Amino acid sequence: MKKVKHRNSTSRILGISLAVLLTFSTSLFAQETEAPAEAATTEAAADPAKGKSLFNANCAACHKLNQKRTGPALAGVGGKYEREWLYKWIRNSQGLIKSGDADAVALWEEWQPSVMNSFPQLSDEDIDNILAYTDAPPPSPPPGEEVTGATGGGTQGSGISNEIILTALVLVFGILVVMLLLVNKTLRRIAEANGVELVTEEGEKRLPIWKAFVQNQFLVLVSVIFLMLSGAYFAYGYLMQVGVDQGYKPVQPIHFSHKIHAGDNEIDCKYCHSSARVSKTSGIPSLNVCMNCHKSIPEYTGEEDLANGYTKDFYTKEIQKLYEAVGWDDANQQYTGESSPVKWVRIHNLPDFAYFNHSQHVTVAGIECQKCHGPVEEMEVMYQFSPLTMGWCVNCHRETNVKVEGNEYYEKIHEELSKKYGVDKLTAAQMGGLECGKCHY
Amino acid sequence: MASNKKYWKSVEELDPNNSIVETLKQNEFVEEIPVDEFLGDKENLESSSTSRRDFLKYVGFSTAAASLAACEGPVIKSIPYVVQPEQIRPGVADYYATTIADGYDFASILVKTREGRPIKIENNTDASVLGSSNARVQASVLSLYDSLRVQGPKKDGEYISWDELDSAVVAKLNELRGSTKKIVLLTQTFASPSTSKLVAEFAEKFGNVEHIQYDAISEDAALDAFEVQYGTRAFADYDFSKAEVIVSVGADILGDWQGGGYDSGYAKGRIPSHGKMSRHIQFESNMSLSGANADKRVPVTPSQQKVALAKLYGYVNGVSVGGTLPSHIDEAVQSAARQLKKAGSKGVIVTGIQDAGAQGLVLTMNKNLGSAAFDTDAPKMLRQGNAKKVAALVNEMNSGRVGALITAGVNPAYTLPNASEFVEGLKGVELSVAFSMKEDETSTLTNYVAAAPHYLESWGDAELKKGHMSLMQPTIRPLFDTRQFQDALLKWTENDKTYYDYIKENWTASILGTNEWNKALHDGVFVATAPEVDEVAPVAAVTADEEVQPAFAVASALRSLANATASGMELSLYSKTGMGDGQQGNNPWLQEFPDPITRVSWDNYVTVSRADADRLELTNRNVANGGLNGSYADVTVNGVTVTLPVIIQPGQAVGSVGVAFGYGKTTGMKSEMMTGKNAYPLYQGFNNVQEVTLAKASGEHEFACVQLHNTLMGRGDIIKETTLEIFNTKDSHEWNVIPEVSLNHNEVPATSVDLWDSFDRSIGHHFNLSIDLNACTGCGACVIACHAENNVPVVGKAEVRKSRDMHWLRIDRYYSSEDSFEEDNEKKEGLHGLFGDSGTLGGFAEMEVAAENPQVAFQPVMCQHCNHAPCETVCPVAATSHSRQGQNHMAYNRCVGTRYCANNCPYKVRRFNWFLYNNNDEFDYHMNNDLGKMVLNPDVNVRSRGVMEKCSMCIQMTQKTILDAKREGRTVKDGEFQTACSAACSSGAMVFGDVNDSHSKIAELKEDKRMYHLLEHIGTRPNVFYHVKVRNTDEA
Questions:
Q1: Which of B91, B497, B762, B886 could covalently link to B1023 via disulfide, CB atoms 3.0 to 4.6 Å apart?
Q2: Measured between CB atoms, which of A357, A413, A435 is closest to B889?
């Protein structure tokens, strides 16, 4: 009896400590959400601030302040040329080149065949603002650094506090265990002192429990059946997960963060995985698709996750890996022609005998990618979200209505079939989506 | 009335005492479990120290190990393009129009590519001429991935660079420029205007250049005859759809006669419409596809063919012609002449006799008839070879007058009858270069092997028919370090253009006119429409006629033809549907393709008539497992002896034998593919008819013949046929009988009784396949198309012999004696008193007559996709099931291989994977090497060992069509649904579609009164239906 009590108490202690842990950890997460600090930039003059937004809107695709990109670096450009000349150049560079202006022709010769867009919509004031920004860039970077420093510190701080809380917890648990042992000991002592016999009482009189068990044939039978059934249950469970790679999260040759691309930057899935619209495969984007953007994004400037070591530097190095693979010489802004294709590790491996077509689901049915692939926009590292088993496929086919609106193909068949089944909306299964040969051939 | 003909698949079946056929009838499932694979090796078994106990331990351990190993998934890499080509989207097929012109086969085709790999050949329906592909063209995509291709330029067996080859060749050519020795270009027929121009430029630069074109199987007679009468070295073109009476004397018009490609026009005229269909009379010695399709086939020996042709001319023109023919042949000739005369301009006559006189006579007769099917204004350019020049070349080589020999697309050391002389002469040639895809008989002997690309990797153009231009474009980047002949010529003439630029310039300058190059390239074909030229051309032709006409002396041609005699047996050399001239000998699809007539795969053989076989004691017999064995015979022509196995061919003219070209290659071949014997040494003087002596040789040959694998088992009504007369006059119940069954002691139509409840199939798509037995010529393009589309494995000769062939689609060939028809009965009764109308496979005499000249019917059979499928109900694991769309599904991953379904299938269309046919060294065909695997269709599963497979009605294609429509938000148009076989069928015999679309062609065909289902009385309700074969027996 007392033993049972003991067990009760230990479990209770465990429960309490769990509650403690939970309260601590929730407060911990709360802390984290509060952490991000606002980047408050205190500008001396209004001009560069406006200039910055104009620069980002109009120029940043081709120009950086301190780096050559499609066009030259623009830091201090206001000092290099006449203001009037710059107005003309920015509004119509080709016209200026054609007019035979020496500076313009020299620029063209250096940078051709890249043609600078014309910006007739920019007023003199706008251009002045931009130039103010490009000529006086320092004000913006330091605050930026401060901000990242601050957030960095913040996350680091939370990381440390995490560890502290954990060690504290360990200590608390340790103390609890010691206390328990002590309480137990004293209780025993008290019992002994009071002459209460506890342990030796049961031993002699009764049959050993296993003998009693063996003699009770009914019990033996029941427990054998129970064991067999549960054994079968677990064996089945084990076998059913063979080949199911839900949660498969391999390390990729380039650390590509879907969180940054699809989440932070809200790039549409199908911008990169364009063949999902028309093909059976969603397609891993070819590197030239990456370069559509990364030609002008050579470094990472977003948030960092220092707990996992995802610093800006880390991401920028990953972008460098892309440049190496595609053969892009960032310094000289040109392709070297030496490429080495990236060997991604395939995550979603449907067996050969199952046919799956993305375009059927993406274009025809209009299903969100997330329905099968999970919250990709939150995945720092991509993993397999769904089990990709036949049961999973079939369940969805049973539950999902066919998207017939505006699709002439479905008009007749839907009308006839829904009448036959007496429903308003047909599920994919009723449309024939459970037939073996639809997926297996 | 329905014909009560008796059909038989093999001569053996006609022998009532043949116990093996009887056994086979009882034992419908002839494939045996291959226990010999593990129990056959008795010695090893006995010497092994492994005890039963050990064995069980091993089994236990390996099972555990295997299941543990299976738990860990492999890491699969995906490698995207660095720069993805704009046109390529992974998972979406692209089609390119191109042209095959390999010197033997010419056709405008579409090539399906996936991720930049050509995987399938389709017909180019935009092409007005030769837009259809035969079995060899369909299979040519696999030859691209031949693992034995030569991978770069070679000198004396060592790989060298192209620069080395160029400098050596150019140096030598320049050295020869001043000398008296010739530079000879020995090439295939290119029929290419740009190549001709280029060769002329090459000749101009180096002087003393001779360009000799060489066709392995010569058509010189027809070319010469046409040249005499019309001034061009070409073939007259025929449109058989416009002919009501077709008389062919030895011309295999459905085979490779004059370059082939006539089957689609022919088939159009064969479908009875408005009570009319063409009548085809065939005089021939070997049983050919054309003879098999003819309404009346007269077996005549080659020398009799000549006499018959002369007599035919005589009867048509009322001239008396000498020469003698057996009376029944003479009657047949007279009857043919009567029908030709009656048909007038609706008649046409063709001949395959390799004799300029005979060919000239035919041209004259067609012109005199004013035949609508006959076209000489725009002749065909499919053969340009000149046998005389080739023969002269060999002599010149031997006398040391040839300084350089550059070959392209030919393999004379294999195909020349006097190959040994050629080889000897080659030693005296200072520079020899062979442009070749393989290290074959010729290129292993030349100084240099210039690795040539496959046509799917090359640029080119061709003028298949005058004014009908085609373009060839690469569909894949060259797999190896190859360079095409034309590019080399450009390089050697110091022209820095590529051949592509050269063609483009040539076309823009002289062919396209105002039309766009890109459009022509996109279409693959371009018809030069130059009305002014058209108007001028006939005038020119007429004047040419007038000038040239006297040059062809009808009288002397008649005289020489009529006097043709033969002293002994005559050999007709022919090309097989599967192998052609043999250049694709290393193609396993073609090797395993059963010949449409003999149904033998992996072999060539000598075909002899039953009478000759009996005389020479040559035998064919079936052994217990259904395999065919045959005697060997020594075939001797002018002292050259080739020992070949014998096939007793019903319909072979007595006194004649046939041997096919294209086999017996030994160089550049996988050992499995070195089958048959080379018949080219018998092709002396480029004459396909030779006097021959035949003698029985010792031994017995084991054929891989699929004929007796599944016997009819008494189900005679699997083929239905009738005559045009009955078809036109009688009600369809009489000639297309619906079988009756007994229900409650009343006879009711079998279609009204059913064991199963029917499902409503009126909603959505319901696929049906229609097969018109009238239009099906048995060409077999569908068989290869099915292989390519569905990743059907090749199993090899030994396995085919054991009935383990994997063809999803087979073309059954049935023989029947034509004597069961009433009028023929009467005729025959006069001849043979023994003939009875009992309908049993009676006496020996009847059998003999039947075997002498049977009628033939072809019937493509694939899974019938029964709505009430017997296979589905017996599957213990429900691996095969039915869909609403009418397709019978087969889930391979669910199949456990009990084979109940195959046993329960009345049509015998299910195929069992006895072995793993990929990645298995025992089956060293294309699925066993990385190169060959590139041909696999990524949309279709590659099956593993131990599962059943069968025709899926190309569900991957129907699903794709549906998906395309869904994506575009439209309904599916009629004609969009296709299967691989229906798309490959150029004769229009196979039509596929959705019968629930009431406006579709298939719905119309299903209502046709010729429609019937196979074995209707068993109530399987198939989704494949056939059209009753109608024969035009109208003699008048």
A1: B886
A2: A435
Element (H, E) at B698: strand B689-702
- State the pairing for strand pair B600-601/B606-608: unpaired
pLDDT at B91 over 60: yes
User: Where are the domains positioned within chain B?
Assistant: 7-17+711-817+854-1031, 94-144, 154-218+385-527, 235-380, 569-709
Question: Residue A138: how many CB atoms within 10 A of its CB?
Answer: 8
Of A242, A286, A411, the CB nearest to B81: A286
Query: How far is C-alpha B844 from the chain's CA centre?
Result: 34
Q: Report B:932-951 residues touching A (Cβ under 8 A).
A: 939-942
Question: Cβ contact (<8 Å) for B90 and A437?
Answer: no
pLDDT the model gives residue B14 = 67
- Four-point Cα dihedral A396, A398, A403, A409, nearest 10: 120
Q: Give the nearest chain A residue to B82 (CA atoms).
A: A287
CATH class of B235-380: alpha beta
Q: Which residues of B touch A326 (CB under 8 A)?
A: 82
How does residue B324 score in pLDDT terms, banded at 50, 70 and 90? confident
Q: Looking at the domain A46-139, which fold is it?
A: Cytochrome Bc1 Complex; Chain D, domain 2 (1.10.760)
Residues 237-276 of A with CB under 8 A from B: 242-243, 245, 248, 250, 274-275
pLDDT score at B832: 42
Judge: B881–A437 Cβ closer than 8 Å, yes or no. yes
Instruction: Kindly identify which residue of chain B lies nearest to residue A418, measuring between CA atoms.
Output: B763
CB contact under 8 A, B885 and A432: yes
Q: How many angstroms separate the CA atoms of B174 and B430, rounded?
A: 13
**Edge-to-edge strand list for the sheet holding B448-451:** B158-159, B154-155, B448-451, B431-436, B402-408, B182-187, B209-213
User: Is residue A186 less than 8 Å (CB to CB) from chain B?
Assistant: no
Domain B7-17+711-817+854-1031: assigned CATH number: 3.30.70.20
The architecture (CATH level 2) of B154-218+385-527 comes to: 3-Layer(aba) Sandwich (3.40)
Q: Is the ipTM of this complex over 0.85?
A: no
Nearest residue of A to residue B958, measured between CA atoms: A438
Which is more confident, B234 or B830? B234
Hey, are the CB atoms on B80 and A437 less than 8 Å from each other? no
Q: What is the CATH number of domain B569-709?
A: 2.40.40.20
Q: Where are the domains of chain A?
A: 2-37+144-194, 46-139, 209-240, 258-387, 389-441
**With a threshold of 0.80, does the pTM exceed it?**
yes
Cβ-defined contacts of B204-209 (< 8 Å, 24+)? B205/B493, B205/B494, B206/B173, B206/B174, B206/B176, B206/B177, B207/B177, B208/B176, B208/B177, B208/B179, B208/B180, B208/B181, B208/B182, B208/B183, B209/B182, B209/B183, B209/B184, B209/B185
Instruction: Determine the Cα–Cα distance for residues B722 and B225; give it in Å rounded to an integer.
Output: 40
Looking at residues B551-565, what average pLDDT do you find?
81
Is residue A439 within 8 A of residue A354, CB to CB? The reply is yes
Q: Do B892 and A363 touch (CB under 8 A)?
A: no
B residues 911-930 lying closer than 8 A (beta carbon) to A = none
Quick check: B847 pLDDT over 50?
Answer: no
Average pLDDT over residues B618-630: 83
Size of interface A-B (CB pairs under 8 A): 156
Closest CA to B688 of B215, B294, B233, B101: B215
* Residues of chain B positioned with their CB less than 8 A from the CB of A256: none
Q: Which of residues 339-368 of A touch B (CB under 8 A)?
A: 339, 341-346, 349, 351-355, 357-360, 363-364
Q: Which two tokens stand for residue B395?
A: 């002599």
Q: Does B83 contact A at CB distance below 8 Å?
A: yes
Do residues B817 and B8 touch, judged by C-beta distance below 8 A?
Answer: no
